[in-house]
């Protein structure tokens, strides 16, 4: 013990001695329970308080010994908790090992689809990625390189031949398929501003083809590869399917069709042991969201109104996608899970 701590011992001892009468009275009225043993009777400290010969060092050492005992007890409790939860944590590692999946809709590092891909890969799943058009090939390939064993394929969901080709390649490379993450959506930028009644037929049709019908088209190609595999299909939606969100317009209608498709697909594919679910994510600053007029102000307003008083992250959505793709959600299908910091429960 250094000199400074030794010089403080008399002062601390006096403080302890001033409190001893109160401690003694309390101790004499109640049994003492040790860190890990049964309650035992504690003898009165009155004699010790009255013993004026007791040195300050004795008081200090006694208090220090009691503190060390409590700290040791606390350390043991933490160790017991770690040992208790270790099997559970280990069980999550590699939960999706020997599984395969395909992720549609990765655009960049901020994409929810990329967050879902990383969550799946962290649990051991080998992945295929698709891209639409030569412009997106480079960014998707660069990201896929971060995940060992990934496959990268062209797949414009408006072209049936490319969907066929993509799943044919997946079948040849993987043999089977366990999971699909569908994170594809599109509407012309002009349709995401102003009044909904000005929606054009062309904008309406392309929005539904890419954002809603593509889920059915992809599921139909994935089905043969999922036979006997406890397959899962997860898609992404938004609360604009149920409520009016400024400037979301035709995309809200398309998302409503998407969610209805989830329910019908879940009913059709359930007998094949393939589950279909959706994740309704809160607003996140992604490439697709940037096309909605006034999106930044929407983001701020929602953060003020959610029960958690914040927006969500892509990683939070990604982990739920991984959950829906794994065995812990084996009894769930036809469901939409909200990951929006609780915004969907608010009335105003």
Topology diagram in text:
Layout: H1 3-29, E1 32-33, E2 39-40, H2 46-50, H3 56-92, E3 100-104, H4 112-122, E4 126-131, H5 134-144, E5 151-154, H6 160-174, E6 179-182, H7 201-226, E7 232-237, H8 250-269, E8 275-281, H9 295-305, H10 314-324, E9 336-339
Parallel strand pairs: 3-4, 3-6, 4-5, 6-7, 7-8, 8-9
Antiparallel strand pairs: 1-2
Helix pairs in contact: 1-3, 4-10, 6-7, 7-8
Describe this structure in words.
The chain has 2 domains: 3-29 and 48-91; 100-345, NAD(P)-binding Rossmann-like Domain (Rossmann fold, 3-Layer(aba) Sandwich). Helices cover 50% and strands 11% of the residues. It contains 10 helices and 9 strands. Residues 1-17, 19-52 and 85-91 have low confidence and may be disordered. The strands form 2 sheets. Strands 5-4-3-6-7-8-9 form a 7-stranded parallel β-sheet, with helices on both faces. A two-stranded antiparallel sheet has the order 1-2. By secondary structure, it is an alpha/beta fold.
Core attributes:
seven-stranded parallel β-sheet, alpha/beta, disordered N terminus, 50% helix, Rossmann fold, single chain, 2 domains, two-stranded antiparallel sheet, 9 strands, 10 helices, 348 residues, globular
């Amino acid at each position: 013990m250094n000199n400074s701590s030794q010089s403080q011992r008399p002062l601390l001892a006096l403080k302890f001695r001033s409190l001893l009468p109160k401690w003694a009275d309390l101790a004499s009225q109640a049994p003492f329970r040790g860190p890990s043993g049964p309650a035992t009777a504690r003898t009165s400290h009155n004699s010790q308080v009255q013993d004026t010969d007791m040195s300050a060092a004795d008081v200090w050492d006694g208090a220090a010994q009691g503190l060390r005992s409590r700290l040791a007890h606390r350390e043991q409790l933490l160790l017991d908790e770690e040992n208790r939860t270790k099997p559970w944590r280990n069980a999550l590692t590699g939960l999706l090992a020997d599984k395969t999946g395909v992720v549609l809709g990765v655009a960049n590092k901020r994409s929810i689809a990329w967050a879902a891909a990383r969550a799946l890969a962290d649990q051991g799943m080998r992945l295929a990625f698709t891209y639409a058009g030569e412009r997106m090939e480079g960014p998707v390939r660069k990201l896929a390189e971060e995940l060992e064993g990934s496959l990268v394929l062209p797949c414009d969901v408006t072209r049936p031949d490319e969907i066929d080709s993509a799943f044919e390649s997946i079948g040849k490379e993987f043999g089977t398929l366990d999971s699909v993450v569908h994170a594809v959506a599109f509407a012309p930028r002009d349709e995401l501003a102003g009044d909904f009644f000005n929606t054009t037929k062309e904008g309406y049709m392309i929005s539904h083809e890419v954002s809603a019908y593509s889920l059915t088209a992809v599921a139909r190609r994935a089905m043969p590869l999922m036979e006997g595999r406890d397959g899962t299909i997860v898609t992404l939606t938004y609360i604009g399917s149920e409520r009016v969100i400024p400037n979301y317009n035709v995309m809200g209608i398309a998302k409503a069709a998407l969610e209805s498709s989830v329910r019908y697909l879940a009913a059709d594919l359930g007998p094949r042991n393939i589950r279909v679910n959706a994740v309704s994510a809160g607003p996140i600053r992604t490439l697709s969201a940037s096309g909605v007029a006034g999106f930044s102000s929407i983001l701020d307003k929602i953060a003020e109104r959610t029960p958690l008083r914040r927006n969500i992250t892509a990683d939070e959505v990604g982990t739920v996608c991984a959950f829906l793709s794994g065995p812990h959600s084996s009894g769930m299908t036809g469901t939409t899970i909200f990951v929006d910091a609780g915004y969907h429960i608010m009335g105003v």
